[in-house]
Amino acid sequence: xxxxxxxxxxxxxxxSACGGSGGTASATAELQKQADLYNIDQIEVTFHKxxxxxxxxxxxxxxxxxxxxxxGGQTYSGKDQIRNLFADKAAPFRPENxxxxxxxxxxxxxxxxxxxxxxYFECHYIDVENKVVVVxxxxxxxxxxxxxxxxxxxxxxxxxxxxx
Length: 164
Fold this sequence. Notes:
Helices cover 38% and strands 36% of the residues. It is built from 4 helices and 7 strands, in the order H-H-H-E-E-H-E-E-E-E-E. Strands 1, 2, 3, 4, 5, 6 and 7 form a 7-stranded mixed β-sheet that branches. The longest helix has 31 residues, at 22-52. The model has no long low-confidence stretch (mean pLDDT 88).
């Protein structure tokens, strides 16, 4: 559904470009920016869906081939190392952990500048059986549009701060 809405926004931007006024160019640029921010935010949605469902293949659709992830002080370079991280080490993907992954919406922050941007969100992992938050971690990311799709180029896990 996210791609449909993003596509509709891009189509609206293209159609509005058919007008002839100078204001249309700035309106088109603003629509493109909003479409890009929406698509960047969808990285968070997919990230948490993948973690909640232990779906490593879905998680890997978010990463650029040359991505770098630094988690717990350890750096993983390239999709193979990042895949192994999620498949073999990451607590949310361990079979014994039945966690729901969530982000408070007000903690989601994204920026865009052309074909690059940033994305920050927090992961609140909730033990489904006990209904308690078991882990909270922040994820600061550099993202890029590659082949028409927004992907994670670099991610660093952080300790969340108490700010809004």
